[in-house]
Amino acid sequence: MKKSQLPSKQCKVCGLPFTWRKKWEKVWHDVKYCSNRCRMQRKVKHG
């Protein structure tokens, strides 16, 4: 599969689009953030 055909989502914190990664294969439906940095930013902003 070409990289352009991979599914993508928009990060809940920074709003940037990010694409599917092999390490997210089994949990893609739960992935909300593009990186650990954004995941930690969410915790800082929302308590």
UniProtKB/TrEMBL annotation:
It comes from Photobacterium sanctipauli. Pfam families: DUF2256. It comes from the Bacteria. This is DUF2256 domain-containing protein.
